[in-house]
Design a protein that fits this description.
The complex is a heterotrimer of chains A (about 350), B (about 325) and C (about 270). Chain A has 14 helices and no strands. Chain A is an all-alpha fold and about 350 residues long. In chain A, helix 1 packs across helix 2 and helix 2 packs across helix 3. In chain B, the strands form 4 sheets. Chain B has a 6-stranded mixed β-sheet, with helices on both faces. Chain B has a 4-stranded parallel β-sheet with strand order 12-9-14-15. A 3-stranded antiparallel β-sheet of chain B has the order 10-11-13. Chain B folds into 2 domains: about 160 residues, 3-Layer(aba) Sandwich (Rossmann fold), CATH 3.40.50; about 130 residues, Rossmann fold. With about 325 residues, chain B is an alpha/beta fold. Chain B is globular, with a radius of gyration of 22 Å. Chain C has about 270 residues and is of the alpha/beta class. Helices cover about 30% and strands about 25% of the residues of chain C. Chain C has 8 helices and 12 strands. In chain C, the strands form 3 sheets. A 6-stranded mixed β-sheet of chain C has the order 6-7-8-3-9-10, with helices on both faces. In chain C, helix 3 packs parallel to helix 5 and helix 4 packs across helix 5. The longest helix of chain C has 17 residues. The radius of gyration of chain C is 19 Å and the shape is globular. The two termini of chain C are about 35 Å apart. The chains are: A mainly alpha (about 350), B alpha/beta (about 325), C alpha/beta (about 270). Chains A and B meet through helix 3 and helix 7 of A and helix 3 and helix 4 of B.
Chain lengths: ~350, ~325, ~270
């Protein structure tokens, strides 16, 4: 059986051209949404002024023809929100992609192994304990401290889940999922208990849990950005191993992947990005679940393209959702993603059921 | 005192006494204050008063270079204080709940449905923000405003004395001490008058209903501002827990003799005593309460002033006293 | 067959049966595989054929004995190093949706991955020749979800070949194939082992097919690995009978070849 040599080479994955279009298009989309987001707000600072302010601040070009208040609005309020949205959106979408591959479960999202529950408990404890235990002195620890507690809570939860799920020889994926569910439930119960005794701080707690980019500021982004970007860089180069994991752990091992080590690394990096994101914005749902599925539909499951695409499009999606949230009267962006994400996910589900073919 | 006309700035003994009282009140809540009026000439602007460091109700130290001219208020009670000090014209932003005095309704809304819009706040270019304590303005928002370099003064009075202190505090910032002294003096006099009117009368066990839902009543909390007002108005307040929450069982055990329905201020279905009684009788366990059996249920329409901790709180006190002891007032 | 020793097992015991928990699946076996030879492993279900392959692939540690790959003890090999030399075709593998055949075969290049950003010309060449050698070139652009059982098998073989291994382990590769494709596959393995100098170990069910094409046949019986025939020596029917527990008798074809067949009255 001799096959004629192909006139042009067979594609071994998404072509350079296709990848460029996908990622380039995504970046253009992201830039457009980001610009729109910086140009729009409730105070009437318009697009031209906003653009001029950003250029002026970044490149020291142009003389200010705008009031100082406008500059504060654009640079201290709008821009951190947009950058925060990009970081968190990219982080969640990327982590969702990684967990869906690692756990070989399409329902996996960044929170499935305990990050949301752990971060929530950390944040809520930081929000409430100073009030509950007056001996601590300070009444309000500050958003920065809440952020650190949230981050640590998320990381610690993942460490606990991983330890619980560890059996001799490895950490089976199913056990990881179950342990994640169990630990999350326990920590969520802790959050509920704290909410019950929260008194006048309940509003602050609920606000955090719903997820919002309203608290984004340059110092807080400064804490989270290196963690998120760092984990991105380390994850991007692992695309082959993620592809291999799609074949199952045994076959991945036959292809040279140190599966247990890879699980730890991938989980650690994804949890890092997720926890750092949650520390900025609280628990925003659906982005990490829906974006990977959408992108797989559009660009295929090869992680060489899927992983960077998830970052770009995840960023764009969240900034867009935040724009919508701001224009709708300042509702928390987590509400918007839930309202849009859930029906979308249902649609995805129906579509994949219809498309599924069995050999 | 002869008929010789005194020069306007010359102190009289009574005036001096008032200034002393104001000073004492101010020093009670602003110990770090650097400049104190050395004489009674507080009616004119005194540049020597600034720069000024005040301590607000949240214990925060706020430094003011000069008297703020652009004020954003994040709570209606704060707005009322500013206007009562004749500085209404300095307001550049209020909340969507602000309704007194009427002209503030025209001002830009910075707080919408209890959400502080930071963009609008910055756009209003305030040099002072009056926030509300106890998380009415969330601590995170206060931190953010602080971070933007805008001065914030947090007010949270929990008693009449603290309302006076807050008036003095804001007056200090706005350089309106004379107005404050007059205002506080007037308020004190009215309070004393109320006390005198109800003195000696029986103090009925009184429930002030702020809100009711699904068997849980929200009323004055133990030791709360509202409870102290009820006491001043000549009642024995029925109180819930620290937050003012009271379950049906506790209410039946407390057995109020008089019920003031603050909800009538918002809910026309309890606008008349007859309608109100019907509603209350329908609630499980309520028909056994003394107040309900005796028909001592008053639809109370002054809830706003009774629960807004501003200068008109005394209006609320007077309304309470009239509702509790109508026979003492005519 | 001449050739360097690719893998060696000395006194290896591995795998423990669940039920009695004491007797190992592989019981002190010795084995030496050289380059450019095709070895068929035969035996009834559960006799430890998969276990043997896993020990050779390094995914199962031996309880005792020494396992050596290319002269070095297997414990000293990293997973990645093994993958560059040893390819495994598992019994069954669910292929992930959304990929084409070529893309899946290209995953076989992962152990050799050079650039961070994608396959290079070496990879393309390897995939190309793997597809041709596995007789799957015409399937290259098909989505993997649209393959029949036999086509799937060929794709998996191609993926293993794309790894350019020096040792190729195949676990029941003929399972879903029709007769023509079974024959074609075994012939391909025979050809590849000689042409590419690859040591090939294939678990097969068809005794005659194995005997006809493999350089050596090994029979797993009761945890022991027995030489059971080669190109020059047919499989001993007594050994087969003992291993499989069914009546097996020898017959001679028209052109003088000896074949084994089930049935007959040969006593167990």
């Amino acid at each position: 059986m001799r096959a004629a040599a192909a006139a042009r080479p067979i594609a071994l994955g998404p072509s350079i051209g296709r990848s460029t279009v996908a990622l380039g298009g995504g970046l253009v989309l992201l830039a457009a949404i980001a610009l729109a987001s910086v140009a729009v707000g409730t105070s009437g600072v318009g697009a031209t002024d906003a653009a001029a302010i950003v250029v002026h601040r970044l490149f020291a070009i142009g003389t200010p023809t705008w009031p100082a208040a406008s500059e504060t609005i654009v640079w201290e309020l709008r821009l951190p929100r947009v950058v925060g949205g990009m970081l968190v959106g990219a982080g969640l979408a990327c982590a969702g992609t990684v967990f869906q591959a690692l756990l070989r479960n399409p329902m996996a999202d960044p929170y499935v192994i305990g990050t949301a529950a752990g971060a929530s408990l950390g944040a809520v404890a930081a929000l409430l304990l100073p009030g509950l235990l007056p001996i601590l002195g300070a009444g309000w620890l500050g958003l920065g401290v809440v952020q650190v507690f949230a981050f640590l809570g998320g990381i610690l939860a993942v460490v606990v889940v991983f330890s619980v799920a560890r059996a001799q020889g490895g950490t089976p994926v199913v056990t990881l999922l179950l342990a994640g569910y169990a630990v999350s439930s326990l920590l969520s119960a802790g959050v509920a208990l704290l909410m019950f005794v929260s008194g006048d701080r309940l509003g602050a707690v609920v606000s955090w849990l719903l997820g919002s980019l309203g608290g984004a500021s340059w110092p807080r982004l400064g804490f989270a950005a290196p963690l998120i970007v760092g984990s991105f860089l380390l994850l991007l180069v692992r695309w082959r191993r993620l592809n291999a994991l799609l074949l199952g752990e045994e076959q991945a091992a036959h292809l040279g992947v140190d599966v247990e080590r890879e699980k730890r690394i991938l989980t650690g990096l994804a949890a890092l990005a997720t926890s750092a994101g949650v520390a900025i914005s609280g628990t925003i749902g659906f982005v990490g679940l829906v974006v990977p599925h959408l992108l797989r539909l559009a660009f295929g499951p090869d992680h060489r393209l899927l992983l960077p695409a998830s970052m770009v499009y995840g960023a764009a999606l969240l900034v867009l959702a935040d724009l919508g949230a701001r224009l709708a009267g300042g509702i928390p962006v987590g509400v918007v993603t839930a309202l849009l994400g859930a029906p979308f996910f249902l649609w995805l589900l129906r579509r994949s059921l219809a498309l599924r073919t069995r050999p | 005192m002869g008929t010789r006309r005194r020069p306007p700035l010359r102190p009289s003994p009574a005036w001096l006494l008032l200034v002393l009282v104001a000073l004492l009140a101010l020093s009670a809540c602003a110990p770090a204050q650097q400049a104190a009026p050395s004489d009674a000439s507080a009616s004119a602007a005194s540049p020597a008063a600034f720069p000024l460091t005040l301590t607000d109700d949240a214990g925060r130290e706020v430094s003011l270079e000069s008297s703020p001219q652009r004020i954003v208020s994040l709570a209606p009670s704060n707005t009322e204080i500013v206007c009562a000090l004749d500085a209404c014209d300095r307001l550049v932003g209020v909340t969507d709940f602000d309704d007194y005095p009427a002209e503030v309704a025209e001002l830009p809304k910075i707080v919408i449905q209890t959400q502080v819009d930071l963009e609008r706040l910055v756009a209003a270019e305030p040099d002072l923000v009056l926030a509300a304590g106890n998380e009415f303005t969330p601590s995170s928002v206060i931190e953010q405003i602080d971070g933007l370099g805008i001065q914030v003064l947090v007010l949270y009075p929990e008693s009449l004395a603290e309302v006076y202190a807050d008036i003095e505090l804001v007056a200090g910032a706005l350089d309106r001490r004379a107005d404050a002294d007059r205002l506080v003096d007037d308020l004190r006099r009215r309070v004393a008058a109320v006390e005198a009117s109800v003195s000696g009368a029986d103090t009925p066990r009184t429930l002030y209903e702020v809100f009711h839902s699904e068997g849980t009543t929200y009323t004055a909390g133990e030791g709360s501002f509202l409870a102290s007002l009820l006491q001043l108005a000549g009642a024995d307040p029925v109180t819930g827990d620290a937050e003012g929450v009271m379950e049906a069982e506790e209410l039946v055990a407390a057995d109020p003799e008089l019920i003031l329905l603050g909800t009538a201020s918002y809910d026309p279905t309890v606008g008349t005593p007859e309608a109100a009684l019907e509603v209350l009788r329908a609630r499980p366990g309520w028909s056994e309460l003394t107040a309900v059996r005796d028909g001592s249920v008053v639809p109370y329409l002054e809830d706003i002033v009774t629960t807004r901790p501003g200068p008109r709180i005394v209006d609320g006190l007077e309304a309470l006293a009239r509702a509790i002891h109508p026979d003492r007032f005519d | 067959m001449s050739g360097a020793v690719v893998a060696e097992l000395v006194g290896v015991s591995a795998g423990y049966r669940g039920r009695d928990g004491r007797r190992p699946v592989l019981d002190r076996i010795d084995l030496r595989i050289s380059a450019a030879e095709l070895v068929a492993v035969l035996g009834p279900n559960g006799s430890g054929k998969t276990t043997l392959l896993r020990v050779l692939a390094g995914t199962l540690a031996a309880e005792s004995g020494a396992v050596t790959l290319f002269g070095r003890p297997i414990e000293r090999w990293s997973r990645a190093e093994i993958a560059r030399r040893v390819a495994v075709l598992p019994q069954s593998l669910e292929l992930p949706t959304g990929f084409t055949v070529a893309e899946v075969v290209a995953m076989g290049r992962i152990p050799h991955a050079r650039g961070t950003f994608g396959p290079g010309p070496d990879d393309e060449r390897a995939v190309d020749s793997a597809l041709r050698d596995a007789d799957a070139a015409d399937l290259a652009t098909r989505p993997v979800t649209e393959l029949s059982g036999g086509e799937r098998q060929r794709v998996l073989v191609a993926m293993a070949l794309a790894q350019e291994p020096a040792l190729l382990l195949l676990d029941e590769p003929t399972v879903h194939l029709d007769l023509a494709h079974q024959l074609a596959l075994v012939r391909t393995l025979e050809r590849l082992s000689h042409a590419r100098e690859v040591a090939v170990i294939a678990v097969l069910h068809d005794l005659n097919l194995a005997a006809a094409h493999a350089d050596r046949c090994l029979l797993l019986d009761g945890g022991r690995l027995l030489p059971a025939g080669s190109a020059t020596r047919p499989i001993d029917p007594d050994l087969a009978r003992h291993a499989f527990g069914v009546p097996i008798e020898e017959a001679v074809t028209v052109d003088g070849r000896r074949v084994l067949t089930t049935g007959g009255h040969g006593s167990r």
